[in-house]
Amino acid sequence: MVQSFLVMLSNLLHLHNSLDPTTSLLSDTLSSATTTTAASSASSPSDTSPTSLLYSSSVAPLLFFTIASVLSYVASSRPSPSSSPSATADTTPPPPSSSNASDYSVSAFRALSTEHIWSLEAPLRDAHWRSLYGLSYPVFTTVVDKLKPHITISNLSLPSDYAVAMVLSRLAHGLSAKTLATRYSLEPYLVSKITNMVTRLLATKLYPEFIKIPVSRRRLVETTQAFEELTSLPNMCGAIDTSPVKLHSFPNDQKFAATYKCRCGYPSVLLQVVADHKKIFWDVCVKAPGGTGDATHFRDSLLYNRLTSGDVVWDKVINVRGHPVRPYIVGDWCYPLLPFLLTPFSPNGMGTPAQNLFDGMLMKGRSVVVEAIGLLKGRWRILQDLNVGLNHAPQTIVACCVLHNLCQIAREPEPELWKEPDENGLQPRVLDNEKSFYFFGESLRQALADDLHIRLSSR
C-alpha cells in the first residue's frame, strides 16, 4: 500500500506542476543544503519525500496530499476479495471439462496413474482407463514396463508412461496428430514423432514376444483341439484372412491411385493375419497396397516362404484315410490350395454332400479370424481411417495387432466388432512352382472331407 500511495502522490505532484508551473513545490527559504537536496528531488518526483510538501508555497500540494490520503485510506480499508467466503466461492473455477487440455497434462496423468489408482475398485478403475487408452490399467502398465527401457534410451523429454498413454489414446480413438497436439498442449510434429517411436517399438521389440507361430507342442495341441471342437476337422491350427486398412490421406498421384485402391473403392494398404481359436494373431504381414490380391500378398509374405521351404516344423502329424496330415491353416476362396493352406471346394455350395459339409466346417473355423479383425478395428479405431503417413502405416498397423494380442491374452472385454465390407474375389490360378503342392493339397482336402462326412453321418 505504501508503494501504491507514493506512486499516486508522485502523479498528483506531476499534475500540480502542470497546472501551476510558476510555483515551485519547494520553498526558497530552506538552507542552501536543503535547497540542493530538494532540487535533486524535484528532478525525480518519484523520490520526493512527502514531508517536502510542507515547504510548498502553494495550497494545491496540500490539497492534493489530502485527497491522496483519503483515497489511500479507502483502498486499505476495503476487504480483500480472497478474504471473502462468498467471493472465494464465486471465483473458484469450475472443474475442467473432458475436452480441456489440462485434463491431459502430465500432472493430471500423474494424478491418475499414482498408486492410489490401485485402491479403486477394479471394474471402475479399468473401465475408466479403458475409455481413455483402450485397455485396462494393469495391461497398460505391462506395455509401459516393456517399452520404458527403449524409450529411455531415446532421451525423450516426456515421461515414458505419459508418452505411451498419449499414443494409445490416439490409436484407440483414431485422433489426428493435430487434434492430439491441441489436447496435450504439444506441437503436432512432436506428437507424430512420439507416435512413430512408440508404434515402431511395439512393432519390433514386442512383436516377437506376443506374435508367435504355435510351434511348441503344448500350444499346438491346445490350438488344434480347440479348432476340432469347433469344426470337427483335425489338426487345424489357424485361419488366415486379409483386410484393407483405409488410408485417411493419399497423394494425388494417378500412377499409384489404382495400386492402392482396394475392391471397396478407397485407398488402403493390406493387412494379412493368421489367428488361432482365441482370436490371437500368430502371424501378421503388412507389405502390399490395397489393390493387391490376397493370393499375391500371401505369396510375397515371409510366412509363405517359411511354409514352402519347410522352415516351420510342426511336431504333430496324424493319419487320415492313409494321408499324413500336418497342421494346416484355412482360408477362403481367394487363397491358393496348398497342403498347409486348405480352401473350400466351391464358393456357392455346388459340390458333393461331403464337400459341402467340409466347406461349411472350414468356413466355421475361418470365422475366428474374421472376428479377430473385427475386434482389432473395433478396439483400435485408428485402423478404420488411418491418419498417419504412408511410410509409417505398416508399423502402426502391426503395433495395433500387438496390442490386440495383449488384450486377448489378458482377456480384456471385447468391444463391438467392426463390420468389414463383403468382398468377392476370384480363385487364384495355380503357379508352376506350386503344382505339386496343389495336387497334394487337393487329395488331402478330399480325404478330410470324406472322413468328416463318414464320422458325422454315423452319429
Q: Please work out how many helical segments DSSP would assign.
A: 18
What helical percentage do the residues reach?
Answer: 40-55%
The main β sheet shows up as:
5 strands, mixed
Q: Estimate the mean pLDDT confidence.
A: 81
The total strand number stands at 7
Give the overall shape: globular
- Report low-confidence residues grouped into runs of 5 or more: 1-7, 15-57, 76-99
What's the gyration radius in Å?
38 Å
Query: What is the N-to-C order of secondary-structure elements (H for helix, E for strand)?
Result: HHHHHHHHHHHHEHEEHHEEEEHHH
Strand content: 5-15%
Through-space gap between termini: 100 Å
Q: How do the strands of the widest beta sheet line up side by side?
A: 3-2-1-6-7
Helix/strand structural class? alpha/beta
Describe this protein's structure:
- By secondary structure, the chain is of the alpha/beta class.
- It is built from 18 helices and 7 strands.
- The protein has a 5-stranded mixed β-sheet.
- β2 and β3 form a beta hairpin.
- α1 packs antiparallel against α3 and α16 crosses α18.
- The longest helix is centred in the last third of the chain and has 27 residues.
- The N terminus is likely disordered.
